[in-house]
Design goal:
Elements lengths: L1 H20 L1 E7 L3 H14 L4 E7 L1 H9 L6 E3 L4 H8 L8 E5 L2 E5 L19 E4 L5 H13 L2 H4 L3 E4 L2 H10 L4 E5 H4 L2 H4 L3 E4 L9 E6 L7 H10 L2 H9 L7
């Protein structure tokens, strides 16, 4: 009986290992989370033979992981610079492909009406959450917007940083911060939209939020990745991205 149990366990482990080996891993910026979940679901409806698993984080931390050998087949960033850096360092099997552009918004659950950016100087906004500007493009753009609006000096000591835009949003959702500068793609998700209000930030206040991706050297020859890249060029993928607040490439 014991021998039979061990044999069954070994078979189960072999099956699990085979399933993991057949799964294509993708790294994606946290701003893309909800859109990527829908993109992967739509892709797998068309290609049920392929399994994709997505890891999320700041663009800076994911770039560093890939540079140190993390086995991701593709990297979907919230900027163009970090994928370009991986191309330059020899970690890419493709050039950088511009797949969408993002929108920065000011989100709060402290007001019934959407606040304007200059209102952040009011004492009611004791903490303002942004993603860490060294790791997350949306954090860097948030700083640029505050500076261009002329209020950065007034609110600098109230800024709290998360390691990603998802963490910045969590800080505002929990009440640890009274507002957050985050991507529109997170603010419009139903679970977030029903909790608060948001104001789009004038894109002229900061550098463009152009998002690019690469197929990594690890993803070279991966059939699932090649098909997913082709899917990203489809009208269906563009529609999903637009539904989540992204603009298609110009």
């Amino acid at each position: 009986m014991a021998a039979l149990a061990l044999t069954s366990l070994a078979s189960a482990l072999l099956f699990a290992c085979a399933a993991i080996a057949d799964t294509t891993r993708i790294a994606a910026a946290s701003s893309l989370r909800h859109a990527m979940e829908d993109l992967v679901a739509s892709f797998q409806e068309q290609h049920p033979e392929h399994q994709l698993a997505v890891s999320y984080g700041s663009s800076g931390s994911l770039r560093a992981q890939i540079a140190h050998g993390a086995p991701f087949a593709a990297f979907f960033a919230a900027d163009m610079e970090r994928p370009e850096a991986l191309v330059d360092s020899g970690h890419a099997a493709s050039g950088v492909r511009h797949y969408a552009s993002g929108q920065l918004v000011l989100w709060t659950r402290s007001r019934a009406e959407p606040p304007e950016l200059e209102e952040l100087t009011e004492s009611a906004f004791r903490r303002i959450a942004i993603a860490h500007p060294e790791h997350a493009p949306y954090g860097a753009r948030a700083l640029e917007a505050l500076q261009a609006e002329g209020i950065h000096e007034a609110v600098a000591d109230r800024l709290v940083t998360g390691n990603s835009v998802a963490r910045a949003l969590q800080q505002a959702q929990s009440g640890a911060a009274q507002a957050a500068l985050i991507p529109l793609s997170l603010a419009t998700h139903p679970s977030v939209d029903e909790q608060g209000v948001y104001t789009p930030i004038d894109p002229d206040l900061h550098a463009p939020l152009r998002h690019g991706y690469i197929i990594t050297r690890h993803g070279s020859g991966d059939e699932a990745m090649a098909r997913f890249a082709a899917f990203m060029d489809s009208d269906g993928a563009r529609t999903i991205l637009e539904e989540h607040g992204f603009r298609p490439p110009e």
